[in-house]
Design goal:
The structure holds 2 protein chains of 2 kinds. By secondary structure, chain A is an alpha/beta fold. In chain A, 35% of the residues lie in helices and 24% in strands. In chain A, strand 7, helix 6 and strand 8 form a beta-alpha-beta unit. The chains are: A alpha/beta, B mainly alpha.
Chain lengths: 510, 353
């Protein structure tokens, strides 16, 4: 199937998620679409699959213009999608899951299971799949579940199959099987779109690679005309000019200290963590999301426990302490998920502003709240950070994304804690707010606070940090001085297999 | 600008209310026609037995019932606002009622100290029963909804066993305790037949208004209810908040049990707190008004009048009991469809992205 995406643009509020992207998909090909988180890969695919209908531009299938109202239109036209998170009903059998939504009917609306089974058996034979159709899905391995998802698209006669990060959850052996199947589909004339950020897989399996960054298509080339280095450079991009300058300050004493910290429930098996953040210092942790950054932060905040090692805040051991103790000792936290962790959307701004335990204590008299004081405080925060809100009693849900983030940052920074943990603090925020947030973080640094910045935006890390570490597959690299490392070197570390230690050494000695 | 908006709102809603009332009227007419009763007679009987009677005797019954329902509604509201779906009010109520009766009869303390002792033991009993469900949640992961619901049954049947066997008033021939000493009965208000139980509920009502809007524990509970992840990240101790809130909720349910025992029945009879569905009506009342604290008293009064009125219709206007109950249900349905949106915690309801 020939599919053409022509001049596709998508806006999410003020943020431009896709900027005039044009992409051609040909049959008999595996077409890889690569890029960082938030580069626009998934948005582009949701347009192609009919999940997002508010877009500018055109879609052509075999040279005829198409518009979808819902994904089922796209499915009818022969497009199938395998999502990163499987959409299967665990208590139902493989067969039932595959036919769900397009069941063959007999008379009186009874299901024709025999016909369905015959059809699926043919598919299994054609593509050399082996799976028990009468097994319930909850008994299947992750790889087998993915096979069921793929069978779902084949059963609906998909000619173009989109796979969103298909290897993220697979074991090496399962990956091999998957790519063998993809080759079979390709030889059968189907078009495959592979969304990933693992470059080695792209080089080994794809025929064509398109790189996306910040909502734009950077390049689209046959695999033979490109190299691993070129792709990874295109993914991270060249540095934008720094609009913010950091004053030179000598870092003070250690404020946050992780020592041999072995955290429970990391996504991959990694080493124990050792990390120091000093006063008047911003330490950046770069890396593609999902490599253990959020688990590390949860362990520091006190939302996740650890097997061994210890955490010190301001030279006080807080390893077993609860969140409110840690906050009182000197910790504040700007969470990535502002809707869930940063705010209670159904509560007023003043209720959101005054929650942190330390602040709460200043705003109460015995068991009673000091409402006027809370109101004045909230008004002060709103004014100081230029939060666009009607009044302190407005609901948090009435704020726009950027203003929500400003409120959270205003609240957390007002605590004047010694240690500040900032997790993607400018994620999905417009440019003006980004600059403001960066300025605030830098002025906290000048005032002697220790800041740990975790971000998947490499530019942000390089602009703000004194030192940088890269997190990959639940392991931290050693720390680099920001002035002495280039974004290309960091980009390589972010996308490299953990075993490729040679490369890392080369950078260190350079 | 704001005023214009308000007028616009009123105009449109007036029409809607009128339509709602009209359709309700026709459905009721139809039902009464089915039952062969005149609408006029039935509505008169309804009003009389809800708010009238000789020397307002029925009104006092309604107020007394309103106290119990409002109390249970408050118990539900406190827990629900904190995100704890405590539907075990019935169990906490029964435990409280039995504790009050048991302590009153067997402690030997009489008069005002006896009343205080009985009320305190009822509140402790109800509170502990609710805390049990909280511990099941925090230690074993049993959802609050399931834990509180399942604890209703042991509460009901343990007390049922107690009053049928070891603590039974054998002479009465019924599964109930002995009658309480007269000095422990809650007195009537001067010149009326209204017991002072509702005063306790008024105090609790005022207390809950302050708790919900002006106190630190109430604030913590509300934030936990709105977003448990946010509350935890901000340093609120979820373990303590859960247990404290449940204890408070259960204690109010226990208090209601004590009021029923000391003020109305003067003993504990098997099923006397379960059959009238005080706890479940309270939950419905709390949900009807969207968990907005000030509205809980009018809601309680609404349900109490409805119950009194419906039973009066049955008594004097020859409307069969089943039809009376159907009418009651339909009125609730109609009011619910209109009232839920009105009572809102804040004026600002705009949704952002």
């Amino acid at each position: 199937m020939f599919a053409q995406l022509h001049d596709i643009s998508v806006n999410f509020g003020e943020v431009r998620a896709l900027d005039s992207v044009s992409l051609d998909i040909s049959p008999n090909q595996i077409h890889a679409v690569v890029g960082e988180n938030g580069a626009g890969k998934s948005t582009l695919m949701s347009v192609l699959f009919g999940l997002n209908v508010n877009y500018g531009g055109q879609i052509f299938i075999n040279d005829t213009r198409k518009t979808w109202a819902t994904p089922s239109d796209a499915i009818k036209a022969g497009i199938g999608m395998v999502h990163q998170h499987f959409m299967l009903i665990e208590s139902m059998t493989v067969l039932e899951n595959i036919i769900l939504g397009s069941e063959p009917n007999k008379y009186l609306g009874f299901l024709d299971f025999q016909l369905a089974e015959k059809k699926i058996s043919n598919l299994l034979e054609t593509y050399n799949f082996s799976i028990n159709l009468h097994q319930t899905v909850d008994k299947l391995s992750v790889g087998q579940r993915q096979m069921v998802e793929i069978l779902k698209t084949l059963y609906r006669s998909a000619e173009l199959i989109i796979l969103d990060e298909p290897t993220a959850v697979l074991t090496p052996a399962e990956r091999l099987d998957l790519f063998n199947s993809l080759q079979d589909f390709k030889n059968a004339g189907k078009s495959i779109i592979l969304i990933t950020h693992k470059i080695d897989e792209v080089i080994a399996n794809a025929d064509h690679v398109s790189v996306m960054r910040a909502g734009q298509l950077i390049s689209s080339l046959p695999i033979d005309g490109t190299s691993q280095t070129q792709i990874s450079e295109e993914i991270v991009g060249v540095s934008k000019t720094k609009s913010i300058s950091r004053k030179k300050i000598k870092a003070g004493s250690v404020k946050l200290n992780l020592s041999n910290l072995d955290i429970l429930g990391m996504p991959q098996i990694g080493n124990a963590f050792n990390l120091e953040v000093k006063a008047s210092e911003i330490v950046g942790i770069a890396g593609v999301a999902g490599n253990g950054q959020s688990e590390l932060i949860e362990a520091i905040i006190g939302l996740r426990s650890s097997k061994s090692g210890f955490i010190e805040i301001c030279s006080r051991d807080v390893t077993g302490a609860d969140i409110s103790t840690r906050r009182d000792v000197g910790l504040c936290y700007i969470p990535e998920d502002r809707q869930k962790r940063g705010l209670a959307l159904g509560a007023q701004l003043s209720e959101n502003a005054s929650i942190s335990s330390l602040v709460s204590k200043a705003f109460s008299k015995g068991p009673f709240l000091r409402k006027t004081k809370i109101r004045n405080f909230t008004e002060g925060l709103i004014k100081k950070f230029d939060v666009k809100a009607s009044s302190p009693s407005a609901l948090a849900s009435s704020l726009s994304g950027g203003n929500k983030q400003k409120l959270i940052i205003a609240r957390e920074l007002s605590l004047e804690s010694d240690v500040i943990i900032a997790e993607n603090p400018t994620w999905g925020v417009d440019l003006g707010a980004i600059n403001q947030i960066h300025h605030e973080l830098l002025s906290m640094r000048e005032n002697g606070h220790a800041i740990l910045l975790v971000s998947s935006d490499l530019d942000e890390i390089l602009t703000l940090s004194d030192r940088v570490l890269v997190m990959f597959e639940s392991e931290l690299s050693q720390s680099f001085c920001t002035e002495k490392v280039t974004r290309e070197e960091l980009g390589k570390l972010m996308l490299m297999k953990a075993s490729d230690k040679k490369e890392q050494k080369k950078i260190n000695t350079a | 600008m704001k005023q214009f908006k308000f007028l616009y709102f009123l105009k449109h809603n007036t029409v809607r209310y009128f339509m709602t009332a009209l359709s309700l009227f026709f459905i009721l007419l139809l039902l009464l026609n089915l039952a062969d009763a005149s609408f006029f007679e039935a509505s008169q009987a309804f009003l009389k037995s809800a708010f009238g009677g000789r020397r307002y005797a029925y009104l006092y019954v309604t107020i007394s019932r309103c106290a119990l329902i409002t109390g249970m509604a408050i118990a539900a509201l406190i827990a629900f606002r904190a995100g704890l779906i405590n539907i075990g009010g019935e169990g906490q109520l029964v435990i409280g009622g039995f504790a009050a009766a048991f302590v009153s009869i067997y402690s030997g303390v009489t008069g005002v100290p006896g009343i205080i002792l009985a009320i305190l033991s009822a509140m402790i009993g109800g509170g502990l029963w609710a805390v049990l469900a909280g511990l099941m949640k925090l230690k074993l992961g049993v959802p609050i909804l399931v834990g509180t619901l399942l604890l209703n049954y042991p509460a009901r049947y343990i007390t049922s066993y107690f009053v049928s066997h070891p603590f039974r008033d054998v002479a009465s021939g019924m599964p109930q305790t002995l009658l309480l000493d007269k000095s422990l009965w809650l007195p009537f208000i001067e010149g009326t037949r209204l017991d002072t139980g509702f005063i306790f509920i008024l105090i609790v009502y005022g207390f809950v208004l302050i708790y919900s809007h002006r106190s630190v524990p109430g604030y913590h509970a509300k934030m936990t209810g709105l977003s448990i992840e946010f509350a935890a990240t901000s340093g609120i101790n979820i373990f303590n908040t859960t247990l404290k809130t449940l204890a408070f909720s259960g204690a109010i349910a226990g208090l209601v049990g004590a009021i029923a025992v000391l003020g109305i029945h003067h003993r504990f009879t098997d099923g006397m707190l379960v059959q009238p569905l005080y706890a479940w009506t309270g939950i419905v009342a709390a949900l009807l008004i969207n968990l907005v604290p000030w509205a809980i008293l009018p809601a309680g009064f609404f349900f109490a009048s409805l119950t009194s009125g419906a039973s009066g219709m049955e008594r004097t206007a020859d409307v069969p009991k089943e039809i009376a109950i159907i009418i009651q249900g339909i009125i609730i349905l109609f009011v619910a469809s209109r009232a839920t949106g009105i009572a809102s915690d804040t004026k600002n309801k705009e949704e952002g992205n």
